[in-house]
């Protein structure tokens, strides 16, 4: 069925205007992004087909450019547009958290970190610098690569924390494998960093590992 044959209440754009974005299904939201369908397939049907093929939005959004462009109705222009939308969303959430967030519990930082790290193919080690009220001052990726192969230098972490006038820090890194369980190397480097920062009166509140859809908090596990 042509989209123009549908009543206004079932057309994604009109539905969003009248009811708000939250009222739309994943396929309807994706249809607005796609804008046009294909011969014999309207844009909502195309969107649903892509969701069925990819199983989840996560899989579709994190596909490589080659995987993305090989799919029906997609191409380089759509890939570029999608990456721009995702980056804008991430920056919006980052600004919002920097302005409003008080990171005083593991749950208060989970959403922020999963937005920052979910889908990354490379392991990164991030530090969240907090003020005396546990509000985010800045986040920074300090090291790339697995903790075993890419060194995490306590001296560099201390220097960066002092530079950012941090009263406390939260460490975070991702496991691209999707398994969030801390390794022995994770525990050892956390202990070294905690000892180094103790010397300059900076508290380590937590070390959070992001793996796929789950997070593990050292603080909740009693490891800090």
UniProtKB/TrEMBL annotation:
InterPro entries: MPN, RadC_JAB, RuvA_2-like, UPF0758, UPF0758_CS, UPF0758_N. Keywords: Hydrolase, Metal-binding, Metalloprotease, Protease, Zinc. SUPFAM superfamilies: JAB1/MPN domain, RuvA domain 2-like. CDD domains: MPN_DUF2466. The keyword Metal-binding applies. Pfam families: RadC, UPF0758_N. Belongs to the UPF0758 family. PANTHER family: DNA REPAIR PROTEIN RADC, UPF0758 PROTEIN YEES-RELATED. This is DNA repair protein RadC. It comes from Pseudoalteromonas distincta.
